[in-house]
Structure formats: structure tokens, C-alpha cells
Specification:
Elements (H helix, E strand, L loop, with lengths): L5 E5 L4 H12 L3 E5 L5 H8 L3 E3 L13 E4 L8 H7 L5 E3 H9 L3 E6 L4 H13 L6 E8 L4 E4 L6 E6 L13 E4 L7 H4 L2 H13 L6 E5 L12 E4 L9 E8 L2 E7 L4 E7 L5 H15 L4 H10 L8 E5 L4 E5 L4 H14 L5 E5 L4 H15 L4 E4 L16 H4 L7 E3 L2 H11 L3 E5 L8 H12 L3
Parallel strand pairs: 1-2, 1-4, 2-3, 4-5, 6-9, 6-10, 7-9, 10-11, 11-12, 17-21, 18-19, 18-21, 19-20
Antiparallel strand pairs: 7-8, 13-14, 14-15, 16-17
Helix pairs in contact: 5-8, 10-11, 13-14
Length: about 450
């Protein structure tokens, strides 16, 4: 890129879109965009010098644009989208642009219906703490980078989160691929689980034959015979990569990591849920193939601070714990809740869940109810619609009525803090991928004040 270009983003506040915006901005290009609401993420973009506006207004669009980048979450009826479609200017989806950037590097792509953000973030951190290095486009804010974007012009590697929504991950042809899970999701796009599995198989088959595809042991997919495949798991000894002798001491996990060529004894992870060890196994498998040394691997795992809103501790004292988590799929909820119960046995756990999407709620209401029923008290917020229009008869009550216990509540955002304070939990956890994150600071401040926590 020898000349300065102008890039305009429709939906610039999305986690994947904002990473691309930061990338082009870091290259010295003119970057601006529109999004529906101001969020901490868009405010950060503005602070970094990127112009963002929040009401559709074609007069605020630059007069000369080299490329428009948009997210499928933008409605086709959006005033700016309609206007730009009528102009003689290249318009590309976020996934297309990410694919074009990644094809010029050795791409490490992490796909899966859950686990991909934590795993890709961990890989990016491990490589960044080694002599290998990497750039990265992540699906969450990595605490160690305080960003969803990492730039290293000297490294040949780029780590990307491979999103299955809208078949976005099929724009990638990675050197190293990871598939963490293939549970049913995005059935509004795929119609059925079989179509989703076929897309994951296609993604896996796009792995470079000189690289490797790492697949979770329990994932049952068929790949082309010439695709080099390795399996990993939490503790299944039939896998090529797995953890064993897993134990906890003072809230931290220790384990021995088995690989085809080496056993790494006494690996340590600080303040992490049990399921993150499985993500770490995958991350270490990739890092080992990239040439990361044992010392570098040990140091990175021990110092990895995680991803914001992925099992993130907001308050942690002897008497009260508040965890915030992005979980919005039944499997994610189950993994998180099981980890909390393992860390805090015999403690009274109260969970708040904001369902994400009408279609997902309709498809998995019973599964959500089953996952949440393990909690001592359950509070449901209204569905966060995101890109969807309401579906008749689909509300949070579908989940509420499927929960087979009395300690369940449907609550508005305005009353939530008062209800939580009245319930006086030992452990509080908030779940959801919608705008529940905007409530988290208020919840935290209220409990700190109520319990006189500094």
C-alpha cells in the first residue's frame, strides 16, 4: 500500500469490523464509519482518531472512497447502504477483506461454535511473547493487548478468528486451522445442523497441505485425505494433544501437556476456568508447530490474562464473586456454569442471562433452560434482537417456562440491580452477547458500594 486510501465502514463498532478499521488506520489510511449506537469500543476508535457517527446520514460519508467495508449485520434497507450501493465504489464484506489480508501471511485461523475467541486470543498472546511474533484480528478484547487487533510487521504470521456466521470463514485459506466445536448454531443461516457441518468441513479442507488442521477429538467431520489432521482434547488420551494430571491449587490450574513429540510437565494457568485448559491445549499445539520454545510456552500460559467478557472476574473477594461472561449458546453456558460450580462448591450462585437473537432463542429454548437450571437462582432479561426482527411468540418466557424450578425470574434492565442486591448472592454471573455488558459496570459499582468493597 504505497498511497493513502479512504476506507468507509458500515457497522464499524462490530468487534471484527473495528479490528479491520484499526488495521487500515495503523497503515496511515483515512478511516471513518457509521454504527447504530455509541459503545466503549466505538469511543475507543474515536479516541484513536477514527471518525464515527451514529445516525444514518449520507452527507457524512466521505465524497471520495476507495472501498466500503460492511458487516452483514447492517440491514439492506439502511439509508447509507442503499446510497453506497448506488455509487461506483467497491463494496466488500468484512470477511472478504480479512481473507485478502490473511492470504499475504501465514494464517492461523480458529473456528468453532464456541471457544474460538479464547483460543485465538491465547495463540496470539503465546506467539507475541515468543520470538515468532504475530499480527492478530480477534473477536474480543484481549486484556494483555487491551485490543482486538495486534500488529507486528516483522512476523510472517497472522492469527484470525474464523467466524462461521454468514459462512464468513470460507474466505480463509489458513496455514494452520483449528476447529474447537461444531454444535448447532446460526440455523437462520444454515437451516439445519448438516449444512453447518458441511461448511466446517469445507473450511477444514481449505487448510494448506503444508500446514495442519487441529480438530477437537469429539468433533466428527470428514476431510480430504491429503489434509494433515491432528486431534486435541481436554484429557482424552486417544488425542494427539491433551492435558492430564490436572489439579487445582489456590485457584490456579496445573497440568501436564502431552504432545506427539514432547511432554511438558507442570504447566500453570492462573485464574482460569477448567474449559480454558482445553483451549490452551489447542493453542499450545499450534504454537509448537510455529516454533515456540518450551520456556516461551510456559511463560505465556502462566501470564495470559484472558479476554474481556470471557469468564472475566469483576469482583473477587473471600465472601463475594462477580463474573461476567459472553456465553450466548447453551453449550457455552454449561461449560461456564460447570466451571463456576467446580471453583465455588457449596456457594449460592445467581445467574443473569440475556438471550441473543429471536431465532437462537426459538431454536434452543429448552437447551438454554437445561443449562441454566443448574444455577441456584436464575434471572432472565428480554431477548437482545441484534440484527433480527421479532418472531411472533418468541420471548424470554420460552426459556423461563422450560426451567423446572421455582427460583427463576423475568426482569427488566431497570430493576435488575435492585433485584440482584435483594437476592444477595455468594457468586453472581452475568451471561450474554447483547447489551448486557452496558449493565455490568453499574452492577459492579452497586455491589462494591453495598458490600463496601474497594
Amino acid at each position: 500500500m504505497n498511497s493513502i486510501k479512504t476506507y468507509y465502514f458500515l457497522g464499524i463498532g462490530g468487534i471484527g469490523m473495528s479490528a479491520l478499521a484499526r488495521y487500515f488506520h495503523s497503515q496511515g489510511h483515512n478511516v471513518s464509519g457509521y454504527d447504530r449506537v455509541r459503545t466503549p469500543l466505538t469511543q475507543r476508535l474515536e479516541e484513536e482518531g477514527i471518525c464515527v457517527h451514529y445516525t444514518p446520514n449520507v452527507e457524512l460519508i466521505p465524497s471520495s472512497i476507495d472501498m466500503v467495508i460492511y458487516t452483514p449485520a447492517i440491514p439492506i434497507t439502511n439509508e447509507e447502504y442503499v446510497y453506497l450501493k448506488g455509487k461506483n465504489v467497491p463494496i466488500k464484506k468484512r470477511s472478504q477483506v480479512l481473507g485478502e489480508i490473511a492470504e499475504n501471511k501465514k494464517c492461523i485461523a480458529v473456528a468453532g461454535s464456541h471457544g474460538k475467541t479464547s483460543t485465538s486470543g491465547m495463540i496470539a498472546y503465546i506467539l507475541s511473547k515468543s520470538s515468532v511474533g504475530c499480527s492478530a484480528f480477534l473477536g474480543g478484547i484481549a486484556k494483555d493487548f487491551d485490543s482486538n487487533f495486534v500488529l507486528n510487521v516483522d512476523s510472517e504470521y497472522v492469527v484470525v478468528e474464523a467466524d462461521e456466521f454468514d459462512r464468513s470463514f470460507l474466505q480463509l485459506y489458513p496455514m494452520y486451522s483449528v476447529i474447537t466445536a461444531t454444535d448447532p448454531d446460526h440455523l437462520d443461516i444454515y437451516q439445519n445442523h448438516e449444512n453447518l457441518l458441511a461448511a466446517f468441513e469445507q473450511y477444514g479442507n481449505q487448510t494448506n497441505r503444508d500446514g495442519k488442521l487441529f480438530v477437537k477429538q469429539s468433533v466428527n467431520l470428514g476431510f480430504d485425505e491429503d489434509i494433515p489432521v491432528s486431534t486435541y482434547s481436554l484429557n482424552n488420551i486417544e488425542s494427539e494433544y491433551y492435558a492430564y494430571n490436572i489439579r487445582m491449587y489456590k485457584g490456579n490450574y496445573y497440568f501436564d501437556l502431552h504432545t506427539p513429540t514432547h511432554i511438558y510437565y507442570d504447566m500453570e494457568m492462573v485464574g482460569t476456568p477448567l474449559y480454558n485448559i482445553e483451549n490452551a491445549v489447542a493453542a499450545c499445539a499450534v504454537a509448537q508447530c510455529c516454533g515456540v520454545t518450551e520456556y516461551e510456552l510456559r511463560y505465556a500460559l502462566k501470564t495470559f490474562n484472558g479476554i474481556k467478557r470471557r469468564f472475566e472476574y469483576r469482583i473477587k473477594t473471600n465472601d463475594f464473586v462477580f463474573i461476567d461472561d459472553y456465553a450466548h449458546h447453551p453449550k457455552e453456558l454449561s461449560f461456564a456454569i460447570d466451571s463456576i460450580k467446580a471453583l465455588y462448591p457449596n456457594r449460592r450462585i445467581v445467574g443473569v442471562f440475556q438471550p441473543h437473537l429471536y431465532s437462537r432463542t426459538k431454536d434452543f429454548a429448552k437447551e438454554f433452560a437445561e443449562a441454566l437450571s443448574v444455577l441456584d437462582e436464575i434471572i432472565l432479561l428480554d431477548i437482545y434482537p441484534a440484527r433480527e426482527e421479532p418472531i411472533p411468540g418468541v420471548t424470554s418466557r420460552l426459556i423461563l417456562h422450560s426451567i423446572n424450578k421455582m427460583s427463576k425470574y423475568l426482569c427488566g434492565k431497570e430493576e435488575l440491580v435492585d433485584v440482584l442486591l435483594a437476592l444477595s448472592p455468594d457468586v453472581l454471573v452475568t451471561f450474554g452477547a447483547g447489551d448486557i455488558d452496558a449493565l455490568v459496570p453499574k452492577i459492579e459499582a452497586s455491589f462494591r458500594n453495598e458490600l463496601e468493597i474497594q
